[in-house]
Specification:
Elements: E1 31-34, H1 40-49, E2 57-60, E3 81-88, H2 100-116, E4 121-123, E5 127-130, E6 133-144, E7 150-160, H3 179-183, H4 189-210, H5 213-222, E8 229-233, E9 238-246, E10 252-255, E11 261-264, E12 268-271, H6 272-280
Protein name: biotin--[biotin carboxyl-carrier protein] ligase
GO cellular component, one term: cytoplasm
Enzyme class: ligase
């Protein structure tokens, strides 16, 4: 698809991936599919503004302007990854919204392991890792009502499925990987997508029904952040310490060398060794 063939913005004009659409539940009852789009998050945000139903999914073979946190470019060679966005209207209070990315992270890790056997790990707050390299990034965008209540969340998910190391740009080869590279076998992208929709359905219902504790327990089990020396970066500060706990609200606690404890509800993390390597280079 080229710029001379713009993506239709009307739901009735968008092609559907009907063979993966669910008859039950909320996630994936409507799945739109596009070979190429600028951004699945942007397109789904437009649809959400026209009251698309909760659980609507937009999936693309390739994004030309995909973005991660802090407006970073998300790179994926056409036809090698999964780029999708899911419209969520969770039945939880706005005070719990910081837990959404963590819930989705657990669902994604569950799906990757079910599809491939790869023991996916979670790096706080929004990355899925394997062997110390990034498999998936998650970007959640919260939209509120004029009264300050939750209207919806756009959950953008980018998964590296079949990329080989030489398909990543030079700057990513040492830090990115794919499901197939870790599994050392072919993995079907639609199988990954189908399992992801299943796991999202399960984890969303669990979060709404049982609260954050079951999600938190499984997040901790998959964590590659806790117990390790890290650096946390926020707009206000950059602090080193050991990650010691995931709070009931989804916050990350670190202990500095001086023994002080600091809690973060948002921010970026990297291991101290990775940060040192970047400094040397």
């Amino acid at each position: 698809m080229s710029s001379s063939h713009p993506v239709p913005e009307c739901r009735r004009s968008l092609p559907r991936l009907s063979r993966l659409e669910r008859q039950d539940g909320r996630i994936g009852r409507v799945v739109f599919y596009l070979p190429e789009v600028d951004s699945t998050n942007r397109l789904l945000a437009n649809l959400a503004g026209r009251r698309a139903e909760a659980g609507t999914v937009v999936v693309a073979d390739h994004q030309t302007a995909g973005r991660g946190k802090e407006e970073r470019v998300w790179y994926s060679a056409p036809g090698t990854g999964l780029s999708l966005s899911v419209l969520l209207r969770p039945r939880v209070s706005i005070e719990c919204m910081s837990q959404a990315t963590l819930m989705i992270s657990v669902a994604v890790a569950d799906a990757i392991e079910a599809a491939s056997g790869v023991a996916a790990e979670i790096k706080w707050p929004n990355d899925i890792m394997a062997g110390g390299r990034k498999l998936c990034g998650i970007l959640c965008e919260l939209v509120t009502t004029p009264d300050g209540d939750v209207d919806h969340i756009i959950a953008g998910i980018g998964i590296n499925v079949s990329q080989t190391p030489d398909q990543f740009p030079d700057g990513l080869r040492s830090i990115a990987t794919s499901i197939e590279a870790e599994a050392k076998r072919a993995v079907d992208r639609q199988t990954v997508l189908s399992l992801l929709l299943d796991r999202l359905e399960h984890r969303l219902a669990q979060w709404e029904r049982d609260g954050f504790q079951p999600i938190r327990r499984d997040w901790i089990r998959r964590s590659c952040t806790l117990g390790r020396p890290i650096i946390v970066t926020t707009p206000q500060e950059r602090r080193s310490g050991t990650a010691i706990a995931l709070g009931d609200d989804g916050s990350l606690s670190i202990r500095t060398e001086e023994g002080s404890i600091h809690n973060y509800i948002f921010g970026e993390t990297c291991s101290s060794s990775v940060a040192a390597e970047k400094t040397r280079n």
